[in-house]
Amino acid sequence: MSAHQAVGALDGIRVIDLSRILAGPWATQVLADLGAEVIKVEAPDGGDGTRAWGPPFIAGSESDAAYFTSCNRNKRSVCIDFSKPAGADLVRDLVKTADVLVQNFKVGGLDKYGLDANTLCESNPKLIYCSISGFGSTGPYATRPGYDFLIQAMGGLMSITGVPDGEPGAAPMKTGVAICDLFTGLYASNAIQAALLHRHQSGKGQHIDCSLLDTQIAMLANQASNWLVGNQVPTRLGNEHPNIVPYKSYAVNDGHLIIAVGNDAQFMRLCEVLKLPELSRDDRFSSNPARVTHRRELDTLLEPVLLTWQRDALLASLESANVPAGPIRGIDEVFDDSHVAARHLKVTQENADGQQIDTVGFPVQLSATPASYRFAPPTLGEGTEDVLKTTLDLSLEAVRQLRIDGVVG
């Protein structure tokens, strides 16, 4: 099989990707990994802004940051300046051949180029047009710019993340990755595939309106339900869980580990490993609701005993007892793990400049239509000539003239 042969469940689906930064590119990389052809349209003067979000950069490059490689695998980069009428015409022509368009410009930002949903869906009624923005296309915040950090604050996530009040370092805290962008990208790719299925049944495309704020509120999950159903305002608990105890990080003699007890039977086995069997028979701790109520009393009894253990010895004992537990690893350690290697979560590819690029593999194993890795994250504009020739049937001379005119890069 050719390394560049499209395979997968979405083979035959063409996506025009006008998005940049993270949420949109994350969505289109999911589609690309599943076999879709993704044409990433970038501005000639630097392209996607994350190309410059370094260091670190790809070895030998000062313009392609590691950040960019995280969400732009399996795409062809085409440089088109659609602020020029001829460039907008090129994009519209590409969209006529496409199944999906993804964009994350500010609301109304593409109208002046004739690249808005109404215009493009009229010319291609089967088009699925996905808009991603901070606050969505309706409501009083629609025109505001939206960034992940801002959304984590406004959507309540930071209010439940960080060191609890009353402890040293107490303050709201963002997560270590742009989780609102990433979840929005996943919701967008899921919605796009649902729209493709609807189109298969009805023959009609549609407009998808994705919002970082909507997504972030939806992903509050049990914390939102604690308020909506239980009328309890969740607070910051550090590494503790609001509804399960013991479920946190604990200090041991030579470091820290995670213990994640999910039910009463696991708690009983934990107590046996720690030689504290009486705790599982104590009315304060014999059920999870009781342990949640008496979490501080339980920790007072567990913590001194845990400090007598070496981490690896305790992890081995807990694994033997079928008690969920694990080490706290650095990211460099994650990719050295034999299980991670067995799941093929590191993918090595070579880009057009001959550079080896490692990316994180697609995290789902499909037995019949597995993800494929056809293109490394592209250098800027590497696919411009080939895509315009093969997709729009432009001659080499026509492409060269467009380049001379500054329409393409």
Tell me what the structure shows.
- The chain is of the alpha/beta class.
- The chain folds into 2 domains: 14-218 and 339-404, Rossmann fold; 247-330, formyl-coa transferase, domain 3, CATH 3.30.1540.10.
- It is built from 16 helices and 11 strands.
- Helix 2 links the parallel strand 2 (37-42) and strand 3 (75-79).
- The longest helix is centred in the middle third of the chain and has 24 residues, at 179-202.
- The relative contact order is 0.14.
- Residues 1-6 have low confidence and may be disordered.
Count of distinct strands:
11
Text of the CATH class of the largest domain: Alpha Beta
Q: And the CATH topology of the largest domain?
A: Rossmann fold
The level of helicity is 25-40%
What letter string, H or E per element, gives the SSE order?
Answer: EHEHEHEHEHHEHHEEHHHHEHHEEHH
The averaged pLDDT comes out at: 96
User: Whole-number radius of gyration?
Assistant: 25 Å
First CA to last CA: what distance? 31 Å
CATH architectural label of the largest domain: 3-Layer(aba) Sandwich
Task: Tell me the CATH superfamily of the largest domain.
Answer: Crotonobetainyl-coa:carnitine coa-transferase, domain 1
The largest sheet has its strands arranged as 3-2-1-4-5-6
Looking at the structure, what is the overall shape?
A: elongated
Tell me the number of helical segments per DSSP (H or I, 4 or more residues long). 16
Derived structural class:
alpha/beta
What number of structural domains do the residues give?
A: 2
Uncertain spans: 1-6
